[in-house]
Fold this protein.
Amino acid sequence: MNFKKNKKSKKWLKNYFKDSYIRKAKRNINKFRSRSWFKLEEIEKKHKIFRNNITIIDLGSSPGGWSSFAASKIGKKGKIIACDILPMNPIQKVYFYQGNICNSIILNKILRILNKTKVQIIMSDMSPNISGIKEIDIPRIIHLNEIALKLCYSLLEYNGSFLIKTFQGKGLTKYYNKISSVFKTTKISKPNASRSQSCEIYIVAKKYKN
């Protein structure tokens, strides 16, 4: 038996179950779904991106943390169009499609719901399968980030908002500048609910110019 590896695994599990955000999510899993609910809650308190009766696209939505939080902020007439390659349990006001957003079948389903209208927010919590090797993981998430930004060009309305998870590292500055060129305000956020040792950050962009 690899005692060193086993010791590290026990330490990780201990930290996992001590995590206050995970404990909160587990106590009311139908509401919070995951710790991502708390991350979005913190981002909203600081940046105020939601309002009543808007339409949102939520990419990388499973298990539903962001969708469930957003649904509580957009009023009775608001709606969310969510997409993920993984399954997600139903949420009121959320139209969920399981599949790859790059798949034309999935994209066409979203376009049919929109019926030639544009959305007020595009948000993405998409993440690659993490290898633990930055040289692999960062280019992968930047690729997903680029896909989300391209959707803004065609589906986000003027003065709309864009929220996206990314990783700190090579390629981030170039991507951040690209977002800044098409939004009036662009800021980086690191919620307390995001693990301190994680390289993940969130870009909050408001007032789409195109």
In short: The CA atoms of residues 4 and 59 lie 38 Å apart. The longest helix spans residues 134-155. Residues 1-5 have pLDDT under 50 and may be disordered.
